[in-house]
Amino acid sequence: MATFLFGVLLAFTIVRTRERLAQVQDLVAKSNASLFSVHQMASVFGGDDCARARNLVDEHLTDQIDYRLVDHELAAPFYIRLTDAIHALTPRTRQQGSVYRELVALCIEMRENRRSSRRRPARRCRPSSGAACCCSSSFSSA
Known about the structure:
Layout: H1 2-41, H2 47-65, H3 76-88, H4 94-117, H5 137-140
Helix pairs in contact: 1-2, 1-4, 2-3
């Protein structure tokens, strides 16, 4: 009887973990789509502003690659630099003004996605323990 209950509990844990992984993957995909949009829309500003925004997008994406999927929030310093650079843009034309509003809206959307991706399952990993945990190799290989 105990084995059966343990099996049921394990099955629910696996399903919940897989759902969480799918949710985090979706949020990261949305974030990457937003970053691609920022990269493309920055061309409206031209010159140094465009180059700075595009470099920060590239650096943020490169920084994200260095972390496991569940450690998405560790890339926050580059994300903050990117959003600060976007907010510091000064629109000079009507086209730049409307693109600026879209960029700010994308920053807000990315912030909400990042906030959602920080919500973790109730059980957190403890690196010091030798036991396997919910965010081991299956997350890092995705």
